[in-house]
Amino acid sequence: MDDQSPDSTAAGERIKLNVGGKLFETTVSTLRSGGADSLLSALSNRQAEEAVFIDRDPEIFSILLSLLRSNRLPSTAKRFSNQELIDEALYFGIDSQLRSALAPSRLNGIDASLFTTVNPSADGVVSDFNAIESDGSLWVPTVGRFRSTIGISAIQQQYGRI
């Protein structure tokens, strides 16, 4: 007799999901990577041979499943708005993973989300950037190392209006 408790489901075990009529097969560990409170983690505890039916968009689910597998959004995610992706991620309880994947990437060691404005330093080919922080100070890179932020008023005094 096979009396396994739901918690004893092996992480490498496969599970089948029928999302909007499209069959998906993945591992329990992939579904659990969405977090303990996610719908997908709860579904991973089911002991069923048949695919679990979920009445949602299979194309968006495919993107979210790729996100759980790789911690990155696939290029096919561009077919959908961020709001569509967020709505589905909220349904499945994996919105924090999606928001992390949608967050601005680091720019040469600079967290671009910390700045109000990031502009190319000059017209033409972009080789470096100037960034204006939310407090109005200008972040200016130097060759080989970075200067600390400089207040806009100090730059205006030295170089005129920016």
TrEMBL record:
Gene3D superfamilies (UniProt xref): Potassium Channel Kv1.1, Chain A
Q: Which Pfam families match?
A: BTB_2 (PF02214)
Q: In which pathway does it act?
A: Protein modification; protein ubiquitination
Kindly give the InterPro entries that the UniProt entry links to this protein: BACURD1-3, BTB/POZ_dom, SKP1/BTB/POZ_sf, T1-type_BTB
Q: Where is the BTB domain?
A: 13-110
GO annotation terms (biological process): protein homooligomerization
Protein's UniProt name: BTB/POZ domain-containing protein
- Whose protein is this, by species? Sesamum radiatum
